[in-house]
Amino acid sequence: MAELNILRTRSVSAELEQRLSGVETDLNDGLVPAWVFGNDPELYALERERLFPRVWSFIGHVSEIPEPGDHVIRYIGEDSFIFIRSSDGEIRLLFNACRHRGNQICTVERGNSKAFQCPYHGWTYANTGELTTAPAIDDVLGGIDRGEWGLLAVTRLEQYRGLYFACLDPDAPSLAEYMGDAAYYLDIFFGLFDDLEVLGPPQRATWPTTWKAGFDGFGDDYHLITLHRSLFEIGALAVPPAANILGHHIITGHGHNITISIAPSDEIAYWGYPAEMIARYSTKHLDDFQIDLMKRSRVLVGTLFPNFSYLVFPITVDPKIPAVPLAQIRMWLPRGDGRMEAWVWNLIPASASAEFREKSHLIAIRTFGSGGVFDQDDGLAGHGINRTSSSVIGRSMKLNYQSGFAIGTAEQIEDWPGPGAATSHRYEENAYRYTFRQWVRFLRDDAYPELIPAPRKLA
Amino acid sequence: MSEAPGGGAGSAVNDGAAMALWFECYQFLVHEAALLDDNRMEDWLGLLSEDISYEVPIRQTRHRTEDPLQPDAWHMKEDIASMKMRISRLATKSAWGEDPPTRTRRLIGNLRTTAPDSTTINATSNILVYYGRGDVSEHTILAAERHDILRRSSGGLRLRRREVILSHATLPVQSLGIFL
Fold first, then answer.
1. Does B174 contact chain A (CB < 8 Å)?
2. Which residue of chain B comes nearest to A232, CA vs CA?
3. Is residue A146 part of a domain?
4. Which of A334, B36, B92, B100 is most buried as measured by Cβ atoms within 10 A of its Cβ?
5. What is the chain B residue with the closest CA to A375?
6. Strand partners, B159
7. Residue in A200, A205, A321 nearest the CB of B72
8. Which residues lie closer than 8 Å to A396 by C-beta, 6 or more apart?
9. Which range marks the domain in which residue A140 is found?
């Protein structure tokens, strides 16, 4: 099978290298230079070459391609891949390009195919990626080594709890090593069920901002108070701001972070799941502390570096109607300067009742996604950050990420029983500093960068 | 709807009742569009029937022989409670995404109408929406076909069902903060 290699050719201008070299110094002071959010063709080209091919990128959920031949189009950076369950049962990730002239062979977002025929000259590949035939094959391709000229396949495709991730760099650590302790907290929800499945294909929407506004904003609990104040005002959010601050940010290292809102009582814990769902929880993958966190958790949000996030929390459209929990995964896909695509999948255990399945799906659609009331406001803030950070004056600003570090009351919990560095409360801002630290290491290092461990002591 | 109009006796063009139906329906749709363009949201809400179903299914790029509309996935799938929630949110002072409001200008056309019974009208129309926001010149055009069911009530026509068939696979905006 033909293997895919990344061509790493880009050299960095002295000007950009100088800026990148100062990022960690700023982070040490609790500052993020605004230009990281701005439009910058050289920086974006560097991210496409040094960041996205080298990290473990989210590809899809196993339930999206249940039958042999099922495939969906997925992206690593802006590069197009076919995520497919081949006829031999194996799940593969194939570069969406004919080996002859490079034309894209799969032009649909989703389908079921035994083979792919390139529309240009007709080179035809089995859904395993092998080159099988072509028009006038003997006259034109006689003597070709078909094994050599199959579709380029991503060899590093791994899954955790049904979530498939891919990495294009042979020097990268395994998915398990890359996720590190972030898996411990992901398990608090994803470890509860063996039958999670997606509720249909992902919503896709174009945001007028950089993809980095996705990871920066999604785990940011502080912005709920103001940007989403309208939802408190109409009674959609069950947990008021004064209570929502309670809980923890957890920095697990490698740029990943988690935020958990913790109930002081068991009142609306378990994310508000009804008894029928709680009865289906399997805690076989969880230790006592994870079970305790899960029981007391009102909101769980996690981000795996750099652009995959998940969320579990309860919400309602009417304060007279009890809040219903939704479970969601998101991807923040780069789409050039000033644009990103937010992809949203909602999840449900296959064994959930039809009634709860519909309730959870509907509340997600109505509140949190491409048609949801949250995203309307998030997109606006993302756009404003991007405009400032692309401006002459704005790009020289240093943004304040000092809460929980130099200012505010949040402190690290000294005797945290779980892995990683945990803080209390959830409005602190250390988590993003560690994410940006990992980001700049990927951009600066030619060799595979160190995955920064969780700090013993936040600094 | 399958026969081309204008073909002879009984066709839409020659049928006075059909013309009256079309006219009545078009008047309703342009009135409704004007309320939305003018941000008269409470007035627009008054045109929805209490059992309104408003849906925007996800469209995907599929082969010609396959249905591009997903039967199990939506950008929006609303009932009267969620429509009221959305509109009451817009009335707060912190619906930032729509305050200042997006500038919209809706064009409604290609209307096709039938009346299966005396209280029900099926109306299919195309909509193009100019969508702009902020002090920049960039704008977006949203395009869709709408499958509406209107119902006659004592207060006039009411929207009973709207299915918005987007022409977009990926939404060109970050979220649907407006109604189509």
1. yes
2. B89
3. yes
4. A334
5. B175
6. B48, B150
7. A200
8. A33, A34, A35
9. 57-159
